[in-house]
Automatic annotation (TrEMBL):
Subcellular location: Nucleus, Nucleoplasm
Keyword RNA-binding carried by entry: no
Domain of life: Eukaryota
GO molecular function: sequence-specific DNA binding; zinc ion binding
UniProt family annotation: Belongs to the THAP1 family.
Protein name as it appears in the record: Transposable element P transposase
Coiled-coil portions: 331-358
Native source species: Paramuricea clavata
A Pfam family recorded for this sequence: THAP
Amino acid sequence: MPGANCAFYGCSTSRSHKLSLFKIPTIGAADTDYTKSVKRKTREEWLRLIQRTRVLTPELKARIEANNIYICELHFKAECILDGKRKTLVAGSIPTENLPQKKYDAPKQERRVLERKQLEVPKTPPLLDINTFTEQLQRKEIEPWKIVKSNNDEVRLEYYDDVHSIPKYTVIVNSALEFSVFVFNWLVPDQNFVYVENKRSVIHVDIVGLLKYIESSKLCEGLEEDTDVKSVAVDPTEKPNPTIQTLIVRHSVPKVIDPEEPHFQVSIRYRSVGCDTLTSSEHSNSSCKPCESALKKMKRAVKRKNRGSASPAKAKAPLSKCGPKKLQSTVVSTRLQVKDLEDRLQQLQKEIQQHGVGISETLEKDILTIMGGKNLDATPHMKFFWQEQIKLLQSSKMGRRYHPQVIRFALSIHSKSPSAYREIRDSGALVLPSERVLRDYKNYFKPKPGINKENVESLREKTTSFTSVQRYVAVVMDEMKIQSSLVFDKVSGDLIGFIDLGDPMTTFACL
């Protein structure tokens, strides 16, 4: 029978072999959330192993949907099977034994463990202290570098150019044999590549090679010298302002004294606070990354400041704190506002003169009393109606929404006298809905000639709750006039009109 054999490809086990077959796990309604999760994962793993060597044909798909999939006990470990009156599987058991193999399945090779052998490198005698370093330094040729100061604490090496009176490069080696580099007395920051590549120590570094390496490095030219940079740059000796973040510092370097010049000369560079000073020879730009970043921030700040100075000041802003540009823009903006208000005032005065209606002093007092609401509390309907009229007067004709009570009031007037309703509405004394709007509310049932079944059913529903005495009624019919002009029905699109009494024979007889 279908499904009574093992679902694995190549396994011929069936119930006739007297081996247990286990059905694919299914989720029951009484299972707990944990049991549902275990069964769901187990089912997905079973289907993955089966479809690994079998094509998902329509027949196999139908068996999976019908839960008609079995796997024999030969594919499970012994500890996964519970022996009893009937063999069962431990929850979450996955078939791992005697699985079918693909042709291209190959055993995974174990990774080889590589053992790195330590190469014996001939060691040079390390520097023990600053004195040993000084002795070795004096035996080496370090020109054009000079040893300026040498004592038990540090050794100072200086390199001069032909333009400036202070050393271009200064290397100081302390008692711990750690070195620091200065460029025109500007300390190179700790994260510079010179320190990183040489581990900031001269113990295992050739000092001659280190000095040549510093000479071959590029010098950061700093920021471009323009008006914006000069306006925000500060001197290193200035006391920092805690409210302003200092980004650019003026780096002044004195030049060699020239007898022909009346005053001493200096070279000025504008650098960021975190300037690298030294850059590698591979760096293409003339400035380091911190200086480029500081220049971009400064340009953005200048743009924001210019935009702020060009905008008008706020109403409560103190004028003493505003600059000339802001004051000028404020005056221009204020004059435009005054001109706009004057034009609006003249327009209103012109409309009042053309369309205004003169009233007496007594009528004015009565209107002001009504608008003040002193007599409206006594009649809530009048107060509500007056409030709705004010809202309707302030709204556009195309966007008016009438309150249900206003609709009822308009229907009441229109039912008594349509001509009076039209007279009130056309006079403009009250804002009332048009007759076209009232027609939608008035025709609850679509009117037609003859007896309307909807009206009869409505009357029947109302009389179901009447008592026996209330059921005695009298039907009174009054005369009515039917308009005979041609009318277009907007719902059905038909042309209606003329006099229609319901029965064609009666209509023809009355012609």
